[in-house]
Amino acid sequence: MRPPYLLLDVDGVLVPFPDAEGASPATHTRHDVVPAGRDPGAPVTIWLNPAHGPLLMQVIRTGLVTPVWCTSWRQDATTLIGPLLGLPPLPYVDLPRPQITTSHPNGYLWKRDHADTWLGDAPAIWIDDDFTGLDHVWAAERTAQGQATALVQPDPHVGLLAEHLVEVLAWAARLAVTQADASDNPRGAEAA
Q1: N or C: which end of the chain has fewer CB within 10 A?
Q2: Residue 119 backbone dihedrals phi, psi, to 5 degrees
Q3: Calpha distance 66→44 (Å, rounded)
Q4: Domain of life of the organism in this record (predicted)?
């Protein structure tokens, strides 16, 4: 059975937002990157934690999840962010570029409908800093319909922590056991 998707956001997860004083976490290193279509003379400054690459690679190597970028960085996550962290090229959800003034135009994360369509009936655990209560309801509804879904929400000023990835692995391992039990004991099978 195919492992669940691990949907990864960038801003607020791998690139935390500055705190009230304008500082990024001391664990993060400055990088200037030029996203596709941007003037090379006007790079974007980001702050990445070099420990995130090895931590994410440990998760990837377990084979318990299939990582996919789900970020407004789109393909730039694969070509700019991933290499800075030592990650292999990862697929990405090709999100649109909506003309919105809030990340919750309908009361929930703007990416959610696009991610839901992309996922189809596949199980997923999604790390994003910007979920609302309606996103948690959506995840519970997907799970109740047999499409296991979990949300992990880091503090956007701190970003991803090792404990978030422990949560991902624990969820994925429980799902793998549940799926194995279901295939060993299909519903409706009579006891021998």
Answers
A1: C
A2: -70, -30
A3: 28
A4: Bacteria
Decide: residue 16, CB within 10 A, 0-12 exposed, 13-18 middle, 19+ buried.
buried
Q: What is the pLDDT of residues 81-136, one digit of tens each?
A: 999 999 999 999 999 888 888 888 888 899 999 999 999 999 999 999 999 999 99
152 DSSP β-pair partners? 127
Decide: helix, strand or coil at residue 100: coil
- Report the C-alpha gap between 118 and 95 in whole angstroms: 10
- Residue 20 is given by DSSP the state T
* Nearest by Cα to 89 from 78, 101, 104: 78
H-state helical runs in the chain = 52-62, 75-76, 82-85, 112-119, 133-144, 162-184
At 175, is the secondary structure helix, strand, or coil?
A: helix
Contacts of 188 (CB under 8 A, 6+ apart): none
What number of other Cβ atoms are within 10 A of residue 137's Cβ? 11
Task: Identify the helix (H) or strand (E) that includes residue 68.
Answer: strand 66-69
Query: 55 phi and psi, to 5 degrees?
Result: -65, -45
Answer whether residue 188 shows pLDDT above 50: no
The token pair that represents 43 in the structure block: 């790079």
